[in-house]
Specification:
This protein is of the alpha+beta class and 378 residues long. It is built from 15 helices and twelve strands. The longest helix is centred in the middle third of the chain and has 31 residues. Bound molecules: protoporphyrin IX containing FE. Protoporphyrin IX containing FE binds next to helix 4, helix 7, helix 11 and helix 15.
């Protein structure tokens, strides 16, 4: 970590002497007032009720995520544990199936699914894009990446909603579902992620089955829930700015920037946790450190007019996918999902707009997005 977290506040405030907490009432509804106070007055502070040291400024969050003395709290399967903090291990296993030729092979499936989902809404007057679009498209993309049958998407959907768990979780139902697929891939490997995990060896031996199913489950959680939330915020931001949306409609090459800007302003993962391997300044060994991606994305020292959604912002930063040794492996798939999702919606449902009535706010402290997105389609 740089020295930055130990600098005095940028704008010393006479008011803020008692550190606020992430668990203060109202924070979950709107964390941004708290984020402002933290960035200004308490850039590195222990949040006793939350049980973690909070880091909120963009430069500090970036430095903390790259700091080898701060590790992910539960690396999970042996292959991830052995290589924790170093590029290799589980990352070397997972990443070839999520980029390059493998990613290109997934693209037509994601595009097709986006159109199927959009067409299902075509005869409707109103819809909830979260429940009927955002949750399904990333789940189908994750199912395709793992090489599981498309028709199992509905079944796998529930496991896609667990979120990123640092490769540590085991889900008995999912393990049972995956076992026959694992056996088949061991016998007849393909180009998909599950085959890559089955073909992997540690200490000259294949990965134990529970590591294969654990990593596959982690990918479903990381890919499904996080991308679904990001997609909901992305569509909400664009629907709130019809002028920007119209420009993107005619110039689809601007979609990538609009997606990155939404991730900056409204990252689906607001908090990424780390554990200190040794004392770092005031942070004791073993302490939990919470890197506040949501606060970093709106740091006025890094972004002009940070609360504004500007699809054409020149440099929206890149912290929503994390940074350093654990940075997201699925960013290209997520972006592709967003691009095809938006294109399908605008093509099939050209009149899509916010439904009248109050706008459902974003919710959630750690994972954050609107839980519904009611729209008019005609
Ligand atoms: C907009 C969508 C997404 C966002 C914002 C996102 C965000 C993140 C973040 C912040 C991390 C770092 C966590 C940490 O440092 O502890 C991460 C890690 C990870 N993500 Fe994503 N993610 C997204 C989509 C995906 C997709 C589609 C996949 C897979 C298909 C994926 C797979 C992973 C994996 C495997 C890791 C763990 C990497 C490691 O620990 O080495 N993510 N993601």
């Amino acid at each position: 970590m740089t020295e930055a977290p130990y600098l005095p506040p940028r704008v010393p405030s006479a008011r803020a002497t008692v550190p606020p907490s992430l668990l203060d009432p109202g924070t979950e509804r709107d964390p941004h007032p708290l984020y402002r106070t933290l960035r200004g007055d308490f850039p590195l502070v222990y949040d006793e009720p939350f049980g973690a040291w909070l880091i909120s400024r963009y430069a500090d969050v970036r430095a903390a995520l790259a700091d080898p003395r701060l590790v992910a709290p539960s690396p999970g399967p042996a292959v991830a544990r052995r290589t924790d903090g170093a590029p290799g291990g589980h990352r070397a296993l997972l990443s070839p199936a999520l980029r390059g030729r493998a990613l290109a092979a997934l693209e037509s499936g994601v595009e097709r699914t986006a159109y199927v989902l959009a067409r299902r809404l075509a005869s409707r007057r109103e819809a909830d894009l979260v429940a009927e679009f955002c949750q399904w498209l990333p789940a189908a993309a994750a199912v395709a990446a793992l090489g599981l049958p498309y028709e199992d998407t509905a079944r796998v959907h529930a496991w896609c909603r667990t979120g990123l768990d640092h490769l540590g979780g085991h889900r008995p139902g999912l393990d049972a579902y995956l076992r026959p697929h694992v056996a088949r891939r061991r016998a007849h490997p393909g180009d998909d992620l599950l085959s890559a995990l089955c073909a992997a060896r540690t200490d000259g031996r294949p990965l134990p089955e529970e590591d294969v199913t654990g990593l596959a489950g982690a990918v479903l959680g990381a890919a499904g829930e996080t991308t679904a939330r990001a997609l909901a915020s992305f569509l909400a931001n664009l629907l709130d700015h019809p002028g920007q949306l119209d420009l993107i409609r005619t110039r689809p090459e601007l979609t990538g920037g609009a997606w990155a800007e939404s991730l900056r302003r409204d990252p689906p993962l607001q908090i990424v946790s780390r554990r200190a391997l040794e004392p770092i300044g005031p942070i004791p060994e073993g302490a939990t450190v919470a890197c506040l991606l949501g606060a970093a994305g709106r740091d006025p020292a890094r972004f002009a007019d940070p609360d504004r959604y500007d699809a054409f912002r020149a440099d929206p930063g890149e912290l929503a996918y994390g940074s350093g040794p654990h940075s997201c492996l699925g960013a290209p798939l997520a972006r592709l999902t967003a691009e095809h999702g938006l294109r399908a919606l605008l093509t099939v449902l050209p009149d899509v707009r916010r439904a009248p009535g109050p706008r459902p706010p974003a919710e959630g402290l750690i994972s954050r997005s609107p839980r519904t997105l009611p729209v008019r389609l005609r």
